[in-house]
Design a protein that fits this description.
332 residues, alpha+beta, Jelly Rolls, Arc Repressor Mutant, subunit A, 2 domains, 10 strands, globular
């Protein structure tokens, strides 16, 4: 039987609509917010590795975290969008994104931007997890301290967008067989560590410059105006005039904070919103296209397919596809 704990963060209302398996025999913690709720279900996979299924139905989030030296957290988003802040820069994990962050650097705040989020986290005590992995795989097991040191050497967090190898691993984690569940979690977790070893050895990630607190508040206001109505194209010239910025300065500051240009960021948010609506509502695809700024359904389908590797109809039927091209963001 699952253990169950509840935390009140305001008045409760909302509904649960999981579309993936959650671990049997785990510890379930429910968080109540004024606009909804969230549930985290935790299962120990190895000594030093906890697997957590996250199911949140709220736009609110959490305050500042405590630091946890020697720990790393991995996150994969099945749908929705999670946003946290490190060192004055925003870390956003959207649909099919995968992130790594060093828990020695605490987030100063977080929230769920689209009002819904489902995904998996792995909380890793690096020293203990390395011993467990060596016992499981033998002497040729990778040294996790070296792997994470390489990946997070000059930044506290990294986001890898829509990588096919990562998608394959998490597709299977979301759909584990009922028998031998814990062994299956161990196998897929070990496979994930081996894949991260490949990323580290290939120097897959690289640092980008970023802007600290002086600019993040302004950029966040700009982002809010851009996303106010996704069905319409934002007037970037008007936004520049309002904030007394040239187009070049806006591009520079926005890219420094979010790791991508305003145009790419807007496209990402439109696609993430479309993915959430496809998976959590019965709305017609043409209606969803219009809601995220596409009057031409064919152009929407084409853009969605380029972003997620499958057309909207196929994505709705089979959420865990392993398609897609690699994209990268980092948080310095």
């Amino acid at each position: 039987m699952n253990k169950h704990t509840e935390f009140s963060c305001g008045d409760f209302h909302g509904r649960c609509s999981n579309r993936a398996c959650t671990p049997a025999g785990g510890t379930s913690t429910v968080f109540h917010f004024s606009d909804g709720y969230g549930r985290m279900t935790q299962q120990t996979v190895f000594d030093g590795v906890d697997l957590i299924f996250n199911d949140f139905h709220t736009k609110q989030g959490f305050g500042a975290e405590q630091t946890m030296s020697g720990y790393v957290e991995l996150n994969h988003c099945l749908y929705g969008c999670y946003c946290g802040m490190f060192n004055g820069r925003y870390l956003e994990v959207g649909c099919r994104d995968f992130s790594l962050n060093d828990k020695a650097y605490a987030m100063t705040g977080s929230r769920f931007l689209l009002g819904g989020y489902f995904g998996i986290s792995l909380r890793i005590c690096v020293a203990r997890a390395s011993r467990s992995l060596r016992a499981f795989l033998g002497k040729d097991a990778p040294d996790l301290a070296e792997v994470f040191s390489s990946l997070l050497e000059i930044r506290p967090a990294v986001v890898i967008h829509n990588n096919s190898h990562i998608q394959h691993i998490f597709t299977e984690l979301y759909n584990v067989p009922c028998s031998n569940r814990r062994l299956y979690y161990r196998l897929k977790t070990a496979e994930l560590f081996l894949q991260l070893t490949e990323f580290a050895s290939d120097r897959y990630v690289s640092a980008q410059p970023y802007c600290r607190d002086r600019c993040t508040g302004i950029v966040r206001e700009i982002e809010s105006l851009m996303l106010l109505d996704l069905s319409r194209q934002p007037d970037m010239e008007d936004i520049c005039r309002r904030f007394h910025l040239s187009k070049t300065s806006l591009l520079k500051y926005f890219t420094a904070v979010f790791g991508e240009t305003p145009a790419v960021h807007l496209r990402r948010r439109r696609m993430e919103t479309a993915a959430l609506l496809l998976l959590t509502t019965d709305r017609q695809i043409n209606d969803i296209a219009a809601a995220v700024g596409y009057q031409n359904p064919s152009k929407f389908a084409s853009g969605f397919c380029r972003w997620y590797g499958a057309p909207p109809s196929a994505f709705r039927k089979g959420v865990c596809g392993v398609y897609g091209s690699d994209q990268l963001s980092v948080c310095s």
